[in-house]
Amino acid sequence: MSDSIIISGWDVLDASHEALRQAVSGVPAGGWSLPTPCEGWSVAHVLQHAAGDQLGFASALTGEPGPAFNPFEPTGELGGDAQAFLEDALRRSAGAWAGVDRQAAEVPTPVPPHKLAPASGMAACALDAGVHAWDIAMACGGPSPLTPEMARPMLEVARQIVEPLRAWGAYAAALESQPGDDDVTTLLRYLGRDPHWTPAA
């Protein structure tokens, strides 16, 4: 990793940030307009949304300004270096989480219920980065960046926060589980994603 990358010290969050970083670095030339598992959103839309959400978590923790755009209405116009755009958001998010008191009763979050135990808040932030890393990787024909070690805490917090977010359109309805589902596919189905999605599907 580059010396400029800030590590939060939370393993799941750092792994999710790295997954998103690698997914974005794997977008091919001309790939920003590719469709993703997020219906109606291109790779550029998903990146803009994902970066905005990381800024939202950082803002909730530090009180600093959040994204200058609505992450839930991304324009898909990145306006420059996509990797630098993402890296700024990841640095701010990781830096904010690095300063969290892990013994605190709760920390503020930008998602309902707007206050969570530190480990749960971190997992919610990681969930957002990790699932959008998956979206971008799938859109570009890459391998899944999610691991069972990431998926387990993500699923635990997803079951705490996702239902209200479905009403906002942030997540589709959960898909029915299937025999043989592992930790990653269970998480994806809960988030309304087909684990076998492809751009041609």
UniProtKB/TrEMBL annotation:
SUPFAM superfamilies: DinB/YfiT-like putative metalloenzymes. Residues 13-137 form the Mycothiol-dependent maleylpyruvate isomerase metal-binding domain. Signal peptide: none annotated. InterPro entries: CHP03086, DinB/YfiT-like, Maleyloyr_isom, MDMPI_metal-binding. It comes from the Bacteria. Transmembrane segments: none annotated. It holds the Pfam family MDMPI_N. Gene3D superfamilies: dinb family like domain (1.20.120.450). This is Mycothiol-dependent maleylpyruvate isomerase metal-binding domain-containing protein. The lineage of its organism: Bacteria, Bacillati, Actinomycetota, Actinomycetes, Streptosporangiales.
